[in-house]
């Protein structure tokens, strides 16, 4: 398959590197990472140890491929969709965290947009080198649920590249479960400045569990069957599998970058408000991250 990975930071470089073992991959990212990949290839370390030579570019306009995999941050989705719309793809797949990415992509793109979740842990260590800090899985499928040939084809492409992959017919529920995982893990690790494994025991464990439980209740308000225990178990499962990972939001805080709080905890708060439900843990996590962004990041809210 010809695959474009749009947003070759931590996760995009890991997924793109794994896919490049079997497929013709083009990474769209930023210099100096793109320049290093063009010069010397991409090294994938940590839980893997191999090198590949995908194409890499900083210009995502006018590309064509069987599949576009989107791995930019949620707040960059709209711009990514507009850039991808200048090219031609049979399908697009979001592997991003947060809610609403697929709808934003579908507003720009003519091709089917698949939903996806990833629980691999990834950190871009230096230009040309990404570390896999935890093996997880990719779950993908039609964004509204059900089955589709393009989802099966994407699932096969990921599977043959050695990525643990499930093609699912219940993506709306899977997205809410992943939202519960990220509502629990990302903000808590970013604020406490701990790796994911610190949520398995210790004082921050209850914070993550409560944020996940609140998310499950809001999911049920939306007609999605996600139990409190299922959400908490999902947090524990992912925290264990990615114990050594610096979550993507903690990576943002360390780099003084805008976070995805709006698409994660703040999304839970907004949906809860519509149902007259209070979600104090998600609200507190949101407000603390917003306060940090206001004092640190140049333009956190557009
Ligand atoms: N890291 C992880 O372990 C995991 C991350 N995720 C999710 O995956 C998504 C990506 O996260 P992560 O990889 O950590 O984020 P990163 O910030 O590391 O990667 C995104 C990259 O895309 C680049 N980018 C954005 N817009 C463009 C553009 N128009 N052209 C070229 N490059 C662009 C960004 O550059 P710049 O910053 O300069 O704009 C950045 O390098 C998020 O939704 C995250 O929540 C999910 C599971 C695990
Ligand atoms: C899977 C997990 C929790 C890995 O850290 C993640 O999604 C993230 O960091 O954004």
UniProtKB/TrEMBL annotation:
Keyword Phosphoprotein: no
Domain Ketopantoate reductase N-terminal stretches: 3-143
Molecular function GO terms recorded: 2-dehydropantoate 2-reductase activity
Pfam family, one: ApbA_C
Protein name: 2-dehydropantoate 2-reductase
Pathway: Cofactor biosynthesis; coenzyme A biosynthesis
EC number: 1.1.1.169
């Amino acid at each position: 398959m010809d695959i474009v990975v749009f947003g070759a930071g931590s996760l995009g470089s890991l997924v793109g590197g794994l896919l490049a073992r079997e497929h013709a991959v083009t990474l769209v990212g930023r210099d100096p990472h793109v320049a290093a990949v063009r010069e010397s290839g991409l090294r994938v370390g940590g839980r893997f140890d191999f090198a590949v030579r995908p194409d890499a570019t900083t210009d995502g306009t006018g590309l064509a491929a069987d599949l576009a995999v989107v791995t930019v941050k949620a707040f960059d989705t709209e711009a990514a969709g507009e850039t991808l719309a200048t090219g031609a793809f049979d399908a697009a797949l979001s592997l991003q965290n947060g809610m609403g990415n697929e709808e934003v992509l579908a507003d720009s793109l003519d091709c089917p947009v698949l939903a996806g979740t990833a629980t691999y842990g990834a950190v871009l260590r230096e230009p040309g080198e990404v570390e896999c800090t935890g093996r997880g899985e990719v779950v993908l499928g039609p964004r509204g649920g059900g089955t589709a040939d393009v989802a099966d084809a994407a699932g096969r492409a990921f599977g043959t590249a050695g990525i643990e992959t499930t093609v699912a017919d219940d993506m709306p529920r899977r997205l809410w479960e992943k939202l519960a995982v990220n509502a629990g893990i990302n903000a808590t690790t970013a604020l406490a400045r701990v790796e994911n494994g610190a949520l398995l025991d210790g004082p921050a464990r209850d914070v993550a569990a409560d944020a996940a439980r609140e998310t499950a209740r809001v999911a049920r308000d939306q007609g999605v069957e996600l139990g409190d225990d299922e959400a908490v178990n999902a947090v524990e499962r992912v925290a264990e599998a990615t114990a050594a990972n610096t979550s993507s939001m903690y990576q943002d805080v360390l780099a003084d970058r805008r976070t995805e709080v709006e698409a994660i905890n703040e999304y839970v708060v907004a949906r809860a408000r519509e149902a007259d439900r209070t979600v104090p843990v998600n609200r507190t996590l949101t407000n603390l991250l917003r306060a940090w962004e206001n004092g640190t990041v140049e333009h956190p809210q557009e």
